[in-house]
């Protein structure tokens, strides 16, 4: 009734509704698409596992690089005191601190990429819901016999 008071027929309202929906979908794709679509190609375990592997390799490489720098910086001190007990204690401390740092870093990596995956999956559900709503608008227009063209 409100549409007839304004002089709008059902086809115009449907077209405006579809246009708003398509604009909303387009804006969503532009803003969120770069983040969401690549993530949703993976299963959660594959996505998180890939990033944990990258984090492990990156952390290990940086740890070895840092170790090489420390050894080169303190080479004279290390060579002057070649006491086996001190080297053994240092080795245990080195491995323990590596494992502790690696554990903390991998837990943080797991949490961050789990959150990113959850955000992307929620966004994808919104995107699919909008697409289904747009499809229903097209079906509704087809059932009512309105082809979108005037004869």
What portion of the residues fall into strands of 2 or more residues?
under 5%
Could you describe the largest sheet, including whether it forms a barrel? none
Number of helices: 5
Overall shape: it is rod-shaped
Number of strands: 0
- By secondary-structure content and strand pairing, the structural class works out as mainly alpha
What is the residue-mean pLDDT, rounded to a whole number? 82
Helix amount, in percent? over 70%
**Ranges with pLDDT <50 over ≥5 residues?**
1-8
The radius of gyration over CA amounts to 30 Å
Question: How would you summarize this macromolecular structure in one to three sentences?
Answer:
The protein is mainly alpha-helical and about 150 residues long.
Describe this structure in words.
The chain is built from 5 helices and no strands. Helix 2 (10-39) packs antiparallel against helix 5. 87% of the residues lie in helices and 0% in strands. The protein has helices at residues 2-6, 10-39, 44-73, 75-80, 84-143. With 151 residues, the protein is mainly alpha-helical. It has one domain. The two termini are 25 Å apart. The longest helix has 60 residues, at 84-143.
State the main characteristics.
single chain, mainly alpha, disordered N terminus
């Amino acid at each position: 009734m409100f549409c007839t008071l304004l002089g709008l027929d059902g086809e115009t309202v449907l077209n405006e509704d579809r246009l708003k929906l398509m604009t909303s979908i387009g804006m969503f794709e532009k803003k969120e698409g770069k983040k969401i679509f690549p993530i949703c190609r993976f299963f959660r375990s594959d996505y998180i596992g890939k990033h944990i592997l990258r984090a492990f390799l990156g952390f290990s490489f940086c740890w070895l690089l840092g170790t090489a720098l420390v050894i080169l910086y303190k080479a004279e001190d290390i060579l002057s005191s070649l006491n086996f007990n001190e080297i053994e204690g240092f080795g245990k401390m080195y491995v323990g601190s590596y494992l502790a740092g690696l554990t903390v870093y991998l837990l943080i990596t797991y949490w961050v990429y789990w959150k990113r995956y959850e955000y992307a999956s929620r966004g994808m559900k919104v995107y699919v819901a909008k697409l289904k709503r747009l499809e229903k608008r097209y079906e509704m227009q087809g059932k009512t016999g309105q082809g979108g063209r005037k004869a």
